[in-house]
Amino acid sequence: MDIKRLVRKNILELKPYTSARDLYSNGILLDANENSIGSTFSKIEELKLNRYPDPHQNDLKDLINSRLKISKDNLFFGVGSDEIIDLLIRIFCEPKIDKIMIPEPTYGMYRVSADVNDIPAVSVLLDDDFQINADQISKNFTEEIKIIFLCSPNNPTGNLLNKSDVLDLCKKYDSIIVIDEAYIDFAESGSLIDEVKNYPNLIVMRTFSKAWGLAGARLGYCVANEEIIKLLFKVKAPYNINTLTRFVLREALKNEQLKNSCIKTIVKEREKLKVELAKFTDILKIFDSQANFLLIKCSDAKNVLQKLAAKEIIIRDRSDQPKLEGCLRISVGTEKQNKNLLDALKEIMK
Ligand SMILES: Cc1ncc(COP(=O)(O)O)c(C=O)c1O
Questions:
Q1: Ligand 1 pocket, 180 CB below 6 A?
Q2: Residue 28 and residue 343: Cα distance in Å, rounded?
Q3: H or E element: which one contains 207?
Q4: Cβ contacts of residue 346 below 8 Å, gap of 6+?
Q5: Which residues of the chain fall short of a pLDDT of 70?
Q6: pTM for this one?
């Protein structure tokens, strides 16, 4: 498959900015107009915050490539996966001409990023089990569609997409297929990372915002074909990932056991919460979830949402999304938070 054919002409021809740290990072560094005396933040001196970070992200790549068994050439880090979504749209979609396709209901940022870039988003529906509807995609696919955004486990429905359906799309369409695995750590299996080597148009996106508990650090990554990774490096801001975030990742990775125990607790709490929610007659359905949230369908969703908010328990209204009439999304909390939620629901729904 010829990836270049999918890339915007101006990006192919782009002469990227060469930053000072592209060339040298050691020696007497008088090349980047930094403050050579030091930093006003000196608490963690080893950070050398007066210096720009490595634009090639080698330190970050070294931290995770062996864990993932992925070559460094297949890795790119973004300021959250949200930055990667935006960069991909900017690389592949010519404003006002090209399009993206979004099987819905799903995560809202794919459409927002498309809108910001003046790219029409073609919406198709997932099927009644929130799986890929190949017929719908086939009927609506046109040559202008350069990226199909998929999410597995899907936000807000919580289900994993069938692997074989995703791979069928990779085979069938001359288009980039992005699979957003933000919640994959909460699922028993189902990652497509190992398939990247087999499909040059497949991009797997991950984030440290969920299971690793680093939403505030803003760090995501994607695994993709080398050619796509080179394009991402070409268009990103020179120093997109800041030194503090790099430090945080290095330290957080030492706490893998804590991450694993968080996952275990959240999955256990999710299943407990599911059983308890099923006892409310006003909750018509609780969808199976492989993520750290549950989607529920209520007879009077807006009322539940407002009354919970009045008790300072905040959940998310998803009832305006296609196929999600009356649906609310609840992030799994701590045991105590979940108990507070259930107690509040008992009062609201009595
Ligand atoms: C499916 C999905 N992808 C990506 C993100 C954003 O991740 P990040 O914090 O890495 O930008 C979210 C955040 O809620 C999400 O639900």
A1: yes
A2: 63
A3: strand 202-207
A4: none
A5: none
A6: 0.97
